[in-house]
Every structure is written in structure tokens, then in C-alpha cells.
Write a structure and sequence with these properties.
Elements (H helix, E strand, L loop, with lengths): L19 H30 L4 H12 L30 H13 L4 H15 L19
């Protein structure tokens, strides 16, 4: 389900039946983290970012409609996503909740999120790009091999 032209997870529709449980867990995560309207807004945002197509967004929205009231109680970021793996540095931040969604998208799209992040880091190093690191300080540019 990964679009070969994109270097990021890209979810189209329909979700494979062997990944239905992951889709349900993501819908529950969205419902409990953002509440119903917040989950719908988050899905539209993810669509604008290119994480999912309109058809995939509609499929997740259908899953949201089937949740119980307990599953759509908004925690309003009280418990931001605790992540492991390549996005762990975003745990406990306001972006942690969306990063957790990105992990679900990558899983559903059968994408290699860690590999994509490593390739991005390698490309930044090769280009000598000076971007802030996770602490906000500026990284020293990497000299080119020319």
C-alpha cells in the first residue's frame, strides 16, 4: 500500500484485511486522544500532509463511527503518545500524539518508517544542511566531499 513515488508512509484504500486490527486500534487511539471532532480534524490534516488519501481517510472515519462512547472520550493530550523506535524523541511533546498516528499510518501502509528517517538523515548530512537538532541547538554543517 506504499506509493513508490513517496519517501514517506502513504496510505491509500482499502486497508488489507490482515491489517484490520491495526486500523481499529488506530481509530480507538484517535478517538481517545483527540475526541470525535479532534480525530476528524486530525485525519483531514494527515490527508493534507499526504499521509493518506481521501478514500483512506473515509475508511478510518467509518471506524471512528463504530466506536463506543468510552472509546471516543478525549484525553486532550493529557497522555501524549509514548513512542519507541525512530520517533521516540517526540514522546511527551505536543507532536507525540501525531507521531503515534504516523506510526499507525506506516504500519498500515507497510512502510519502513525507520529506514525512511535514516535515509532522510543521510541526505541531510550529504547536503551539509544546517538544521536544528531535537534540543533546538544548531548542528554543525557537514563538509562536502567535493
Amino acid at each position: 500500500m506504499e506509493d513508490a513515488d513517496h519517501a514517506r508512509p502513504y496510505l491509500d484504500s482499502p486497508v488489507d484485511t490482515d491489517r484490520a486490527e491495526t486500523l481499529i486500534r488506530w481509530a480507538r487511539y484517535l478517538g481517545t486522544t483527540f475526541g470525535t471532532s479532534g480525530a476528524l480534524c486530525a485525519l483531514r490534516y494527515y490527508e493534507r500532509l499526504g499521509w493518506l488519501t481521501p478514500a483512506a481517510r473515509a475508511e478510518v472515519e467509518q471506524q471512528l463511527q463504530g466506536l463506543s462512547l468510552e472509546e471516543i472520550h478525549s484525553k486532550k493530550y493529557d497522555e501524549p503518545g509514548h513512542l519507541t523506535g525512530p520517533l521516540a524523541s517526540l514522546s511527551g511533546t505536543p507532536f507525540g500524539a501525531h507521531a503515534k498516528s504516523l506510526e499507525f499510518v506506516a504500519d498500515l501502509a507497510d512502510a519502513d518508517l525507520e529506514g525512511d528517517l535514516l535515509r532522510t538523515e543521510l541526505a541531510k548530512n550529504r547536503a551539509g544542511v544546517d538544521l536544528p537538532d531535537h534540543t533546538g541547538s544548531r548542528a554543525a554543517p557537514v563538509p562536502s566531499e567535493e
